[in-house]
Amino acid sequence: MSLPPPLLLVLSGPSGVGKDAVLQGMKARGLPFYWVVTVTTRKHRLKEQEGVDYHFLSTEMFDRMRESGELLEYARVYDHWYGVPRATVRQALAEGRDTLLKIDVQGATTIKNRVPEAVLIFLSPPSIEDLMARLRQRRTESSQQLALRIQKAQDEMGRIPMFDYQVVNDRVEAAIDRILAIITAEKSRTHTRRVRL
């Protein structure tokens, strides 16, 4: 029997839901995924590392990548551009590696349209109140920006039916276990997903 083809996994959800914490926990377990590092035009935050959390680009460099078709998807989010480099995704899949993207809901919508074989996972908070508390605790936004993020999060929660799976992030380790169960189920399908880029 041949091995199942590699998966393109999309982890998405509203700002503040814990996507980064889940990814860090998955990496700490030593899981053999290819972790796609997205590009962005925003300034890096405290403790973020170039090439680990994001590739931080100038707007001009981002525009060049976008115009030359080097981005699998891109979107403007909270006054900054974010994008997924196409070549790194294509290479990882060609090497047979399960590939994981962490992107916002808008980007996940684009991926679903361009790569319907991708597995879309929506990471959600236990409640909207819990999400609001997480956003307030970050203290990285002004009160106006915080209100905007909360409104956008509520809108994004309405997009859950577009995703293949929903994972509630009530505890990071439990959320990781649920994501791994999804991957196991996908690898066991009788009709496997074959990603073509």
Helices and strands, in N-to-C order? EHEEEHEEHEHEHHEH
Query: How widely separated are the two ends?
Result: 25 Å
User: CATH topology of the domain at 8-37 and 96-187, anyone?
Assistant: Rossmann fold
Radius of gyration: 17 Å
Number of strands: 9
Say which CATH homologous superfamily of the domain at 8-37 and 96-187 is assigned: P-loop containing nucleotide triphosphate hydrolases
Structural class by SSE content: alpha/beta
Morphology call: globular
Report the sheet-strand fraction: 15-25%
Q: How large is the count of helical segments?
A: 7
Strand order of the largest sheet: 2-7-1-8-9
Note the main sheet: 5 strands, parallel
Query: For the residues shown, what is the average pLDDT?
Result: 91
Low-confidence regions:
none
Classify the helix fraction into a percent range: 40-55%
Going by CATH, the architecture of the domain at 8-37 and 96-187 would be: 3-Layer(aba) Sandwich
CATH class of the domain at 8-37 and 96-187: Alpha Beta
Question: Which helices and strands appear, and what pairs or packs with what?
Answer:
Blueprint: E1 8-12, H1 19-28, E2 34-35, E3 39-40, E4 55-56, H2 59-67, E5 71-77, E6 80-85, H3 86-94, E7 99-102, H4 105-114, E8 119-124, H5 128-138, H6 143-157, E9 165-168, H7 172-187
Parallel strand pairs: 1-7, 1-8, 2-7, 3-4, 8-9
Antiparallel strand pairs: 3-6, 5-6
Helix pairs in contact: 1-7, 5-6
